[in-house]
Design brief:
With 66 residues, this protein is α+β, with helices and mostly antiparallel strands. The chain has 2 helices and 2 strands; from the N terminus they run ααββ. It is globular and about 35 Å long.
């Protein structure tokens, strides 16, 4: 499970109360993917939300379409 403090740095989760961040964190898991892996295809339906860690203190969220 991802710590709520890390999720608080993700723009779409800013402003959520701790209780709601705890719920979101329960659905999150850390995953390492190979460089160059395509996470989405234009026009495809999304079934995952990826939060990409750029540097430890900055996280970026995007939707995976497949």
């Amino acid at each position: 499970m991802i710590q709520t403090a890390r999720l608080r740095n993700v723009e779409i989760f800013r402003g959520l109360p701790d209780e709601e961040l705890e719920i979101v964190a329960g659905f999150c898991r850390k995953e390492s993917l190979p460089e160059g892996l395509a996470l989405c295809e234009k026009g495809s339906r999304a079934n995952k939300l990826f939060i990409r860690e750029v540097v430890p203190s900055r996280l970026k969220a995007f939707v995976d379409y497949y």
